[in-house]
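If you are new to this repository, start here. Below is one unmodified record pulled from the training split, so you can see the exact layout before writing a loader.
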Amino acid sequence: MTDILIVWSVLCSVFIGFPSLYHLYMRRVASRPWRLKTDKTYSPPITILVPTYNEADVIELKLDNLSKLRYPRNLTQIILIDSDSKDKTLERILEFSEKHPEINIKLVKEKERRGKSKALNLALKYATGEVIVVSDADCFLFPDILAKSLPYLADKTVGAIVGREVILNPNRTWVTKNEALYRDLMSGIRFGESKFYATIIFEGGFSAYKRAFLEEFDSETGCDDTGTALSVVQKNARTILIPEATFFTAFPTTWKGKIVIKMRRASQLVQVWTKCLIHLLKNRLVLPKRIAISEIFLHIFNPLIFVSLTFATFLLFLQYPIFLLGFLCIFLIPKTRNLFLETSQNNVILLGALVSLILKRRFVIWNKADESRQELTRDLLESHNLL
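And here is the target side for that same chain:
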C-alpha cells in the first residue's frame, strides 16, 4: 500500500466518517423524550416581526396567512419593518390594514436599506410582546403553529424556539429534490442537538424568543437568526427546534438560484461558528462542547479537509485508475450520487465563505431570492391549507 493510498484513506475516513457518526448519534439522541416542563395553556402577549424589502408579490399572501393564526388577537401585535422598498410593498400593506382593522398591524419604515438585523432591531423598539416571533415575508405558517410551539417556551430553561422548514416545491427539479434531502438530514441533527441541550442553527421562517433573553438581534455577524440564538445560549438559556412547528417556503428551481442562497447562508454560519471557536478557546462558550466542537469541525475544518481529499483523490486516480472506475459507480445510485454532489457543493461554498472571512469580504446582506418567490402562488398555498 503506497503513501498516497494511506493518506487518501485517512482523509476519506475523517471527511465522511465524522459527519456520518455525528448524524447517527444525534438521530439517536433525538429519539429520547424531552426533559422540559411544557404548558399548553401558556399564552403570552406576542409580537410578530416581518421584515420586508420589495415584497409586493408576496406580502398580501403573507398577511393573509398571519391573519389565519389561531391565537387571541388581543394578545397579538404584528410589526412590518420595511427597508425602503421600491415597489408597491407599502401600498399593499396599507390596503390590507385598512381592510382588516381588527388586526393589530403596525408599519415601521426605514429611510435606507441597512440589512435585516438592523431592521429587526428597529422594529424591536416598538414591540410590546413578551415573546418576539420572527417570520420572513416569503415563509408561511400553519394556523396552529403557535399552539404547537409556545408551550415549550413555558419551560424556564428555554429562551428561544425555531420551527422546521418544509419546501413547498420539493419535486420541481433536481435542485429542489437534493435540497429537500439535505434539509431532512440537517433537521435530524438539529433536533438531536435540541434534545441534548440546544441548537443554534436558526432560520428566519419561524422563530420565537422570550423578550427577557433578547436584547437585540445579532448584527455583528450579519446572521440575525443563528447569531441571535447563540447570544441567547450565552445567557444560559436553551434554544431548541420544534419539529411539529413547521413553516413552508418555496426553494429556487435552478442551481444558480440555489447558490445565491447557499453562499449567503454559508457566510453567516462560518462567522457564527468562528465566534463560537473563539469563545471555546477562551473558555467562555456555554454551548456544550460535544455540539460546539462537532459543528465547528463541520463548518470550518471539514471544508479544508475536503480540499486535501480532492487533491489526494486526483493523485490516487493517476496511480490507480481502477479507483476511478469504482468512483464512477457511485453515480449509478441516484441517492448516493445526490448526497455526494450536495456534500461536495456545500463544502466548496463553505470554503469560499472561509476565504471571504479571512479576506474580510462579506457577501451581499439580505440578498432576496426572487426566483423562489415566483414559485409562490395563492393556489399553491391553499393546496397546503396555508390560506
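Two things worth knowing about this chain: The domain at 35-251 is CATH 3.90.550.10 (Spore Coat Polysaccharide Biosynthesis Protein SpsA; Chain A). Strands lie at 46-52, 76-83, 105-110, 131-134, 140-141, 158-167, 207-210, 238-249.
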